[in-house]
Amino acid sequence: MRAILLGPPGAGKGTQAARLAERVGVPAISTGDIFRANVNGGTELGRTAQEYMSAGALVPDEVTNAMVRDRLAQDDSAAGFLLDGYPRNTEQAVELDTMLADLGVALDAAIEITADFDEVTNRLLRRAEIEGRADDTEPVIRKRLEVYSASTAPLTAFYDGRGLLVQVDGLGAIDEVTDRLVSALSS
Ligand code: B4P
Asked: Strands of 2-6's sheet, edge to edge?
């Protein structure tokens, strides 16, 4: 399976990507996790990413695209992958097309996990209490949702137009959402 996971921040992309990837036997590739690992490791990429992430903005496309291109070229992605949090705008989606064409493969599905903004805001504020992520404060969450509406939400129509869109309700227990995803993908 070669798929991408779409949805607003807090919809459950990271949560469900890990579970789905394990069931399907492909790597879950989270651009957010790669950025955070670089921030924690104090790398140059991490310093660049932190500046944008802590403001709730997207990390510049040239940085993100190069990172994903490298990751998809690794051996474990050859038989499939689940991209969590990429693409996040039309420019990244067009670049992903080029990367996949260069690898001679194509996407099987664009899975969108839907959830309303009140619910995702509450989830992220709860996570802030547990994990203390710098981008889970109320003003930054608001900014992330604005960026999602302006830049990422148009990808729903982009992938629907190609017949690749699979929408799954992200509300309810984590196990229920996983079951919905598995059944939506198998049909
Ligand atoms: P991400 O790491 O992708 O973070 P996110 O969108 O907030 O979603 P995440 O995966 O963490 O949360 P989830 O919904 O699983 O991005 C962070 C930042 O990195 C971006 O703002 C941007 O700056 C940068 N970035 C990443 N990709 C980029 C790209 N392609 N281009 C440019 N910049 C990029 O879960 C949230 C919470 O909800 C968790 O606490 C979870 O436990 C909980 N939860 C999940 N499912 C639930 C359920 N069903 N019920 C209750 N709680 C649930």
From this structure: 28-30, 81-84, 2-6, 109-114, 165-169
Question: Tell me, what's the pLDDT at 187?
Answer: 80
Q: How sure is the predictor about 186, in pLDDT bands with cuts at 50, 70 and 90? A: confident
Residue 69 burial by CB count (10 A; 0-12/13-18/19+): exposed, middle or buried?
Answer: middle
User: Has this prediction a pTM greater than 0.85?
Assistant: yes
**Cα–ligand 1 centroid distance for 4 (angstroms):** 14
Tokens of 22: 């394990």
Q: Is 127 a catalytic residue?
A: yes
Q: Is 140 helix (H, G, I), strand (E, B) or coil?
A: helix
Q: What is the pLDDT of residues 54-85, one digit of tens each?
A: 999 999 999 999 999 999 999 999 999 999 99
95: CB partners within 8 A, 6+ apart = 61, 65, 87
Of 38, 123, 175, the one to substitute when testing ligand 1's pocket (max ligand atoms within 8 A of C-beta) is 123
Long-range contacts of 68-75 (CB under 8 A, 24+ apart): 68/29, 68/31, 68/92, 68/96, 68/99, 69/99, 71/29, 71/34, 72/29, 72/99, 72/100, 72/103, 73/103
| CA-derived radius of gyration, the chain | 16
Give me the mean pLDDT over the 23-37 stretch.
Answer: 96
